[in-house]
Amino acid sequence: MSDTPILSVRNIRKTYGGIEVLKGVSFDLERGQSKIVIGPSGTGKSTLLRCINLLSPPDDGSVILDGVTVEQKGINQLRAQIGFVFQEFNLFTHLCVLDNVRLAQRNVLGRSRHEATRRAMEELERVGLADKLDAYPAELSGGQKQRASIARALAMDPKLILFDEPTSALDPELTGEVVQVMKELANAGMTMLVVSHEMGFAKAAADEVIFMEGGVIVEQGPPSTLFTQPEHARTSQFLQMLTHEHHET
Amino acid sequence: MTDFIEFGRTWMPFLLEGVGVTVGLWAVAMVLGFCLALVLVWARVYASKPLYLLATLYVEVFRGTPMLVQLFFIYLGLPEIGIVLDPFTAAAVAIGLNSAAYQAEYFRGAIQSLPSGQMIAARAMGMSRFQALRDIILPQAGRRVIPQWSNEAIVELKYTSIAYAIGLTELTSRAEQVGYQTFQFLEAFTLVAIIYLVLTGIVAQTLDFVEKRTRVPGLTNSGGKMS
Question: Which of A55, A248, B32, B176 is the Cys-Cys partner for A50 at CB 3.0 to 4.6 Å?
Answer without folding.
Answer: A55
